Amino acid sequence: SKLTNLGHLEMTWRSSVRFHPLLVRILHKSRLRYYGKPEKKMDMPYQAYFEVADGSGMMSMVLWNSLCPEWYHSMKVGTVLLLDKYSIKTSYPFKTRPTPGDSQMKRFATIEISLNVRDPPTEISIIPEEMVKPEWGLPEVKYRFITRSELDDLPNNHSCDVIGLVTFVGRAERTRKREKSEDFWLYRWAHAIDGTSDQPFILELFATSQPDVFEHIHPMTYLVCTQMRVMRDLTENPSRTIYLTTSNESQIFITGWHKGQPYTKDAKVKNFIQWTKSQSEADQIKKTVIGGYYPFPRPPESFLKY
């Protein structure tokens, strides 16, 4: 059928009533958001953001309500979609935006694609990777992997991806989303090493929409975290208090989940796998720890400093 592209959509969306089908690749995926309120009677008040791209650039796509439980888990980073009967809306100004792996990619930020169960009912098809043709010009998923030795030079709030061997994982803890709120974020601390530094990555991992991964992070697993943010306590010794925290678009993968993921082709991921082959498993197991309370950043040594 006759296809359109994201660049053409941005130029013509105000004058069009019906849009031609779109062929796009998912580059980023947000966590699932529940926006239900007791006074509003909605069956499935869910929403998820994706960043999708074709040869012309990248745009946000929003999956609404009952389409979320049906499609969210099938729509992975790297998945190619054929979309028809979608609608176009002006972009929501306050949403978070992931940092693209390809800094040259054009970003269409004024509008977003809206996928709904009705008005109109969107038609979604997933194209298997082996059927994707090079002449479609769809961009590859690109990453921003860093090694532990590079972390100390990165600025606060810098976005990056990491891979490491887990040496410590703490218990799940909760923190209030807002003061006096009854809603909580669930998170856990983890350490991961990659052989480039004596220090581990210190990772603050909030539960994303991947409970099956979050609950099974164990020592000695290969852990990949994407779209992490660098956090520095600039008041204290900055190198001592540097850690990484998940963002709204973070994805977490552990051993058993890596097969077929786009990052397996990345050079830094391949270097890490080579390093793990040179390590003695028995030696590494002796250094691993699980559970317990992990106060971080550490409180000062004396009450005066506190």
UniProtKB/TrEMBL annotation:
It comes from the Eukaryota. This is RADX protein. It comes from Grantiella picta. GO terms for molecular function: single-stranded DNA binding. The lineage of its organism: Eukaryota, Metazoa, Chordata, Craniata, Vertebrata. It holds the Pfam family RADX. PANTHER family: RPA-RELATED PROTEIN RADX. Gene3D superfamilies: Nucleic acid-binding proteins.
